[in-house]
Amino acid sequence: MALEEKPPLSLESRIFVEDRLYCSTVGAVRTEQGWICIDTPADPLHAAWWRQTLKTIAPLPILAVIYTDANRDRVLGTAVLLEGRPGLVIAHHQAFDRIKSHGEVGRQQVIDTLINLGQSEAAGLLNRTPLVLPNLTFADRLILHFGSPTLILEHVDGASPGQIWVRIPEHDVVFVGDTVTLNAHPNLSEADLERWMEQIRQLHAGRVARHIVPGRGPLVEPKGVSPLLNYLRTLLKRVKALAGSRRKVELGPLVNEFMNYFPVPEHERERIQRRIRLSIERLLDLYAEEKRVKTRKAATAKAGSRKKP
Fold first, then answer.
1. At CB < 8 A and 24+ separation, what contacts does 203-208 make?
2. Is the pTM of this model over 0.85?
3. How far is CA 72 from CA 24, 39, 134, 269, 281, in A?
4. Which of 91, 112, 226, 242: disulfide with 134, CB 3.0–4.6 Å?
5. 8 A C-beta contact, residue 86 and residue 120
6. Where in the chain are the domains?
7. pLDDT digits (tens, 9 = 90+) for 264-282
């Protein structure tokens, strides 16, 4: 389906969600003073289409762009959206550090992917499009008020250190970035798995908002986050069972088990397999060390109790 054949999802003519673009789901909020964009399309042709779509809906300026994290898929379309005009670019301070350090590498990776997919026009345009760093960062919480509705930005560091949520209480909506990915394998490379699962449980219980906009996939109600919660719960169970094992762990079957949870395009299979393997290895090391620390503490406590008269 061509993008022009169907408009983006609209919630009460204020909040717009587009989940058909390359890499990730993006959103926009029409405030009284102008547009606030939440994440950006990585493909510059899609970014230009998104900018024009918003102008068609309401001929208002784009006042700000919010990055829900530092992922290359979310930060590459800002220059196209703003068309060289001034605007706020907002992120958590840890996301700023990550984009500054690795943003250009991420841009080149997307360029290479577009070339491999035969999208040479988009790749050439992205090569000429500058990466835009955030010019406003925060630590815990930031409130944006450009007239109704108010946006509340909150640091939520389960999926990645610089992850934020964007809540819009007036419409009972939350943009959660890669805290939730639907029909796609989550990136576990920097995750605090147990903290992340607790955040998803809060979403699942309906304690945050009635409408959840994921980082990848369509808008869902709270129960719609169940597939990701089950994935992480099973992964945690498997890893904890294997952590600290004296036998060599064969990861191939475990990687294949988790590959089967969500569909993977053929051109992405090798990358996703490698990412799952590396994530499992990191978690195994993490929980094995945690187990060793607990064992040492228990041994020390036991030795101390024996010395008591």
1. 203/174, 203/176, 203/179, 204/229, 208/165, 208/167, 208/174
2. yes
3. 10, 10, 13, 19, 23
4. 91
5. no
6. 3-179, 238-301
7. 888 889 989 999 999 999 8
